Amino acid sequence: xxxxxxxxxxxxxxxxxCVLSVAFNEDEVLDIFNLVDVQAYRFVSDQATEEMPExxxxxxxxxxxxxxxxxxxxxxxxxxxxxxxLGCCAHSxxxxxxxxxxDPKDLAYLHHDxxxxxxxxxxxxxxxHVKVDATIPGCPPNRREILEVVKSLVIGKGYRPYTMPVCxxxxxxxxxxxxESNKPCLGSITTGGCFAICVxxxxxxxxxxxxxxxxxxxAFMKMLEGKGFKRDFIIERMRTFVGLKxxxxxxxxx
Amino acid sequence: xxxxxxxxxxxxxxxxxxxxTLKITDGKVEDVHLRGIEGSRYFxxxxxHRAYNEASWISARICGICSCGHTIAAIKAMENALGVQAxxxxxxxxxxxxxxxxxxxxxxxxxxxxxxxxxxxxxxxAIAADKPDAVxxxxxxxxxxNDMVRRIGGRDMIPESATVGGWLHFPSQEDLDSLRARLxxxxxxxxxxxxxxxxxxxxxxxxxxxNFSLHNEKEYPVHExxxxxxxxxFPQTDFGKVVEEYHERDQTANFVVREGHxxxxxxxxxxxxxxxxxxxxxxxxxxxxxxxxxxxxxNNPAQAVELLDAxxxxxxxxxxxxVRPEPMADIKFKKCWGIAAIEVPRGTLWHEYELDDSGHISxxxxxxxxxxxxxxxxxxxxxxxxQLMSKSRQEVVDGLETLIRCYxxxxxxxxxxxxxEGL
Lengths: 254, 423
Known about the structure:
Structural class of chain B: alpha+beta
CATH topology of the largest domain in chain A: Rossmann fold
Strand content of chain B: 15-25%
Helix content of chain A: 25-40%
Oligomer: heterodimer
Number of strands of chain A: 5
Largest interface: A-B, 66 and 65 residues
Strand content of chain A: 5-15%
Order of helices and strands of chain A: EHHEEHEHHEHHHHHH
Largest sheet of chain B: 4 strands, mixed
Radius of gyration of chain B: 21 Å
Strand order of the largest sheet of chain B: 8-7-6-11
Shape of chain A: globular
CATH class of the largest domain in chain A: Alpha Beta
Distance between the termini of chain B: 36 Å
CATH superfamily of the largest domain in chain A: NADH:ubiquinone oxidoreductase-like, 20kDa subunit
Order of helices and strands of chain B: EEEHHHHHHEEHEEEHEEEHHHHEEEHH
Radius of gyration of chain A: 19 Å
CATH architecture of the largest domain in chain A: 3-Layer(aba) Sandwich
Number of strands of chain B: 14
Number of domains of chain B: 1
CATH superfamily of chain B: Cytochrome-c3 Hydrogenase, chain B
Strand order of the largest sheet of chain A: 2-1-3-4-5
Shape of chain B: globular
Structural class of chain A: alpha/beta
């Protein structure tokens, strides 16, 4: 038996939901702790990051929203063979990154700290700053996908992320198409792998896993406009979770 | 004169990141300052201009641990604003969602975050080597709470099905029946947890904070009730009249009840204000907590008693609720304001909204339990430090971390935590 993988489950600014999703694999969580050598999981363990070890794999939750975040992210990158951006904040900056399109007047009543270590910087995803080796998207990420990634790394096989749109899984689940009931569902332009979990529960897809490589935004927008949705609303919805990861929208919107 | 400064950075086993700074001169505690160091996320500002029904799904992203709490608080504040009355069935499903979150959160906090402190173990994995059954039971209780949220809300965090005016996708009767059966099966684990935490020898400490929570004569509070703090009781809509927000130093928001008292929210205050409404067996195991209502360390045994009560409330409710598909409530837009307070695992959570006449948000205000507990925590640290003075640095650090952790703080719930005066 070769040596166990040294794994870290770490986070920068975020809600801790992703690191919690690791533990929400309740039937496997204790096995994970046996299968790999969890070197740092601040949420579970006392092992703090003062003397940061070298990692084989780090699952890294969160966005860069402060100089401290950036410092920690770079430090982890230097010490890690495989850096996995865990969740939507890590992948795209999530909802807080929508600040880019918000009216500063609407944010003015939340006057924030300007001390050095929590200076206010616009939230950005991890791959804007360091090389990321893999991404587990979604808000929250699919906990089973986290397990698959860890298992793949343990047995040394590549992990191939899901690339089909949400609609594929949604149809397989026999859901009624929410576009037909006039809901602004983004499933057809969004990467699946989430088992269409929102549509299963009656909520239209908001696109949190990012757009598919071949999403036809023009056609999609025309279709929703035909259903009576305003262009501004459609763009706002598309940008809610992954706005910084839709370069096509910059030209389409203009 | 000797001045000692101590900075505690990167606390583990709490949610989010915080720094504690202490200044001690000639054995006298001069300054205690606890603050979050997460980047700012501006959730409230980003809700402005969004439609009334988007707030629950967006604000649920504030916190992975209390995502059900934010969902329900947002929905109830919107319904209060719009004058919408949801059906009894909808209210019942919401309560079950919150109780599921209470069960999984308390089970996880008690065994994974708090217990290692009291057993002198580095973490729960180390406890598992010694007491595998206890940790397996903790994971099973966490799982049944998660399953309540999954089956009723659609997913284990950020539930999709709950919305303003109704429910998007109904759980099946089989789902509810199997949850009830599983809760009954695991209930002895909740009893054992209450006994375990009652048996711990906790530090002595007398804090001066008022115990602040919802109060409800009919049931142990979840979503409904007036507010009770010390001797005063007031309706939820009087929040701004009773609670004062102020800023100091690095402008972290602080909350006190007017006339300057600090207050504490969480399991201990809930029990202090609602002991008689606990389930009979939870009540019978609550005596030790009730004898220590001014000692914040007893927030942990209070969580354990509440865990059992949440099992009992859920089992009773699941035996009564029969889910039938229902239409959504009618919603008419008008310029309006609404506020709602609900009891989430870590205490009272407030959502407040102003809507314009097209149903869009013109102002949002979210006040989390940890933001409200900040002052109480600092005060407790100040009162506890003299007991630690003669100890080693490591013992001081461990002691303070244990105290902070017993509040079960959620430092990434930073919606209101890092607020600053930009003047």
